Amino acid sequence: QQIMSSLFNLPRVGKSSDLAGLRSLLNTVQSCIQRMRSLGAPLSEFALALEPVLHSAVSSHLVFDYAESSS
After folding, report:
1. What's the CA gap between 67 and 70, in Å, rounded?
2. pLDDT tens, position by position, 3-15
3. pLDDT exceeds 80 at position 1
């Protein structure tokens, strides 16, 4: 329950220059994934639920910039 609460209350990152915010987001997501795995939940079971949550944690501009740079 606490893990899911952490995932649905991720820190918001508005700019790619917000390195502290990005680091905080990464640390929170990694911690939640590790705790879910330690409970025996395979990543494939909760990965689809993570995507929209991650998209909402970062600005749409940041998502677009990432998509542009990775294509």
Report:
1. 5
2. 778 877 888 898 8
3. no
Angle 19-38/43-57 helices, nearest 10 degrees? 160
**What is residue 12's three-state secondary structure?**
coil
Residue type, 36: M
> pTM score, two decimals?
0.77
Answer yes or no: are the C-beta atoms of 39 and 31 closer than 8 Å: no
Q: Residue 53 and residue 9: Cα distance in Å, rounded?
A: 9
Task: Name the token pair of 51.
Answer: 């995507």
Q: What is the per-residue DSSP string for 16-71? A: TT-HHHHHHHHHHHHHHHHHHHHTT--HHHHHHHHHHHHHHHB-HHHHHHHHHHH-
Which residues on neighbouring strands pair with residue 13, listed in sequence order? Answer: 58
